[in-house]
């Protein structure tokens, strides 16, 4: 399957990345820390369903750059 068919999954990754970043910005709040952990788990789960080529194309700038950044931060294999 072409990497062009993963738009919704990449959007989901961008959304969970945003949730993680927002939750991590709230310091000293156990609920925010738990939300960040859940967002990371969701990110890992969805990223396993995406063709690794999606992490190569269109991730150096724009909307999906944060997805590539979190992928690198988590040391996921599809960098």
Describe the structure in your own words.
With 79 residues, the protein is mainly α. 57% of the residues lie in helices and 0% in strands. The model has no long low-confidence stretch (mean pLDDT 85).
Order of SSEs, N→C? HHH
Taking all Cα atoms into account, the compactness measure Rg is 13 Å
Structural class: mainly alpha
* Contiguous runs where pLDDT drops below 50 for at least 5 residues: none
Shape: elongated
**DSSP helix fraction:** 55-70%
Average pLDDT value?
85
Describe the structure in brief:
This protein has about 80 residues and is mainly α.
List the helices and strands and how they pair.
Layout: H1 7-24, H2 30-47, H3 65-73
Can you tag this structure with a few keywords?
single chain, 79 residues, mainly alpha, 3 helices
């Amino acid at each position: 399957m072409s990497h062009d068919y993963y738009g919704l999954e990449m959007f989901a990754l961008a959304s969970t990345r945003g949730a993680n970043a927002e939750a991590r910005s709230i310091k000293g709040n156990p609920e925010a820390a738990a939300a960040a952990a859940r967002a990371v788990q969701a990110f890992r789960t969805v990223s396993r369903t995406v063709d690794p080529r999606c992490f190569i194309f269109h991730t150096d700038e724009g909307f999906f750059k944060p997805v590539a950044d979190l992928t690198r931060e988590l040391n996921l294999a599809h960098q």
